[in-house]
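Q: Two folds, back to back.
A: First:
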Amino acid sequence: MLSMSVSDFMLTMGIALLVAGLVFLGIGCFVLVKKILGRELQTIADQTSKLAQKGLTEDVTGLVGNARSLIDSLNSLIKTQAGVGVMLLLLGILLLGGAYALVLQIR
């Protein structure tokens, strides 16, 4: 049977929090970088604006309304993805801080 002292257990928990914090920090950075480098969303937004301009010149109001709702959906998608990335970064920083505080308690 494995017996651990209190300080060994706290060190193990600190290491686990450190690893989890680094993982969340890495995933958050990846999500934000992926958002910046995502060319698909930019292509869709460009095509939608061209579609809206064509709808205005040809006086097709339904087409313009649908294009506008598509642009609004793209904007909310981008905001949501950025929010997820920032939340993961903050969670990673909190876990790293918790690991540091836990390791400081070891005597």
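A: Second:
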Amino acid sequence: MNKTKSFVKYLKNISNSINSLLEKNLNKLNLKNLSYLFKNNKIILTFVALLVIFITYLSLPNFYQQSDIFKKLQTELLNKYDVNLKFSENIKYNFFPSPHFITKDTRIFNNQNEISKIKKLKIFVSFRDLFPLKNIKVQDVIFENTNFYLTNENHNFFFNLINKNFEDGDIIIKNSNIFFKNSDDEVLFINKILKMKYYYEKKELKNIFYSENELFKIPFSMETFLNQDKNKFFSQINFKLMQIKVENELSITDEKKIGNSEFVFNKLKLIIEYKIEKNSLNFQIYDKKEEPNIIYKGKINLKPFYGSLEGGLNKINLNYIFKTNAIIAQLLKTELLNHKNIDFKLNINADNVYKNGNFKNIYLKSKIQDGLIDTDYTKFEWKDFADFELIDTLVFVRDGDLVLDGKLKIKINDYKKVYKFLVTPKKYRDKIDQIDLNFTYNFDKKVAKLKDIKIDNKINQKVNKILNDVILKKNNFQNKIYFKNLLNKAIMSYAG
């Protein structure tokens, strides 16, 4: 032990001598004394000797037993980051550009279960503590071409890391993938990691987790950090391609997680307040700019990679869904949700439509399953005049445009009031009980194509020709006049 300490002390004295020699002579170096320096054999020999000793010191880890290195690095990573690594048989050591170990085909285990395969792993260690082996300290760790396999039991792996010690070293992950699996070991979706980094911000005294990712070919970045008390998560997610930014604050207690999110898309700014308890998520949403006094409430029952949402609203703002630049429309256009492993149901009841008093008792029903999106059995009422129901619908993207295709059933409750509202000439006011039709609606072009129109189970070709193309106007007033004229033309054609 005394010999070891003496050797280490000797190496440190040599290092100090090198530094002192360089400080004294490099600043004085010029063309005149440079030639003297090369002629002075003592200085050259001393420099060469020091260089040999320095390189020897850097090379010391090459002489350690591989099994001992494995054990030391494994213990360091487990204690520092709570990462349990199983190394392959071979590990290499390099001291350029700084001392580090390289190994391939390493695995990470969590509760005896393998959760990751690392194709290439670099572990950088402290330059000052290369000898003896027990003094080696892990600093930066770089994962390259790594596959992570996460399930409902270990999905918090990446967020748990942020609570570790990064004051003297970072964790960097490059060109890797996260495979999210269900309980049947089926891959639900893959998150591609372009670059991920955990580091310590000295000025702000906090750990920061930053990641650049790609999900369903949509790039996004995420930054997360903990407050000093480590009971609040702050995060920001940025989808630049979709111009979406989400800022989130999450408070964590023993049983509950309470959060507040600000969702920004173009001019839209939504505030979402939520609470997570075991298998449920309760939330309320309001539009900070447009509708600060209208609050939408809802509840999601959570299952592993499954979601269902049911909620009741006083008024529903259809602009959030049907407007060309609406967030839901843009999300659907990315085809992010057209994945066979996404299973989600949305059922919302609303008394009225925001800024439109003609429609009421809206029951919006949608489903995402097996890669298909539909709005089957969505219902709404037009005053007391008629009931509408959507059947056999499908939402899809065609040539970059968002399209809704399906069937529409219209039950006429009071045909006399319908004719009165449309100001239809009395001689054309024949009794009508039900209208059935097929339709295709293009959200971007605001064009509806109607076909196979049946009035009381009878097809009238003239009516079909008149109503084949319905083109929406710029504002509601223009649309009302347009619809009245168009429908009256079809009614008069039907009545003969």
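Q: And?
A: The mean pLDDT is 81.
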